[in-house]
Known about the structure:
Blueprint: E1 3-12, E2 15-25, E3 30-34, H1 41-48, E4 56-61, E5 69-72, H2 84-94, H3 101-110, H4 126-137, E6 144-148, H5 156-173, E7 176-181, H6 184-188, E8 193-198, E9 201-207, H7 208-214, E10 216-224, E11 236-240, E12 243-247, H8 253-262, E13 267-275, H9 277-280
Amino acid sequence: xxxxxxxxxxxxxxxxxxxxxxxxxxxxxxxxxxxxxxxxxxxxxxxxxxxxxxxxxxxxxxxxxxxxxxxxxxxxxxxxxxxxxxxxxxxxxxxxxxxxxxxxxxxxxxxxxxxxxxxxxxxxxxxxxxxxxxxxxxxxxxxxxxxxxxxxxxxxxxxxxxxxxxxxxxxxxxxxxxxxxxxxxxxxxxxxxxxxxxxxxxxxxxxxxxxxxxxxxxxxxxxxxxxxxxxxxxxxxxxxxxxxxxxxxxxxxxxxxxxxxxxxxxxxxxxxxxxxxxxxxxxxxx
Length: 286
């Protein structure tokens, strides 16, 4: 494990922002931290990166690297009047790194930016600025990267491109990546594990698929013959072309799928859970 935080607390006056938060991150793992606005995500990330002190709790970083952690908090702070190359050179000097021109060009290329582009980064799209921020975070080869809302302001293509780059960093270089968002779609198919935070507390944690399944209250079932089966007769169902939207209250989805599979004339192709955000952000009874 590269990062291990235990019982981290932080308050600003009478406002308790973090209430005993614990999380961990392994090498090569992508972990997501999801929660509504004001849940404590950015404060926790600032503590992990050493930008804000914690009131109590422990933080252990198991690394011998010169720079164990790199990160972006909210929007990357860039010099808008400089080019991407010049920005990277300035931040390398701040970190007292001696990078050759070839090194800088390589850093830009690995995040999908052209080293030959010379115009100021103020002309860049938000997606390009996020990729440049990621290149800066990767200076000095950290073993863990912390990304706070990196998809904010990106269009769907920009989100997909950045997701692919994050996957590659974890897979090819073994970097542990901790990433926050309030958007479930951005994290659902990206993260190995998921932490759900609300009102300063981690209320759920585990493999992403399990967490999403726990908060699923409806399912889209794809297949043929669904409109003629009696299995769904008593359920709350919305019929669509080639699929049904099934709302569940008590019955198990596994039981319903087993019954459907046994029905003559029914051919199932997929079942996609629809996570309910209200249920996801609701603290489970102890």
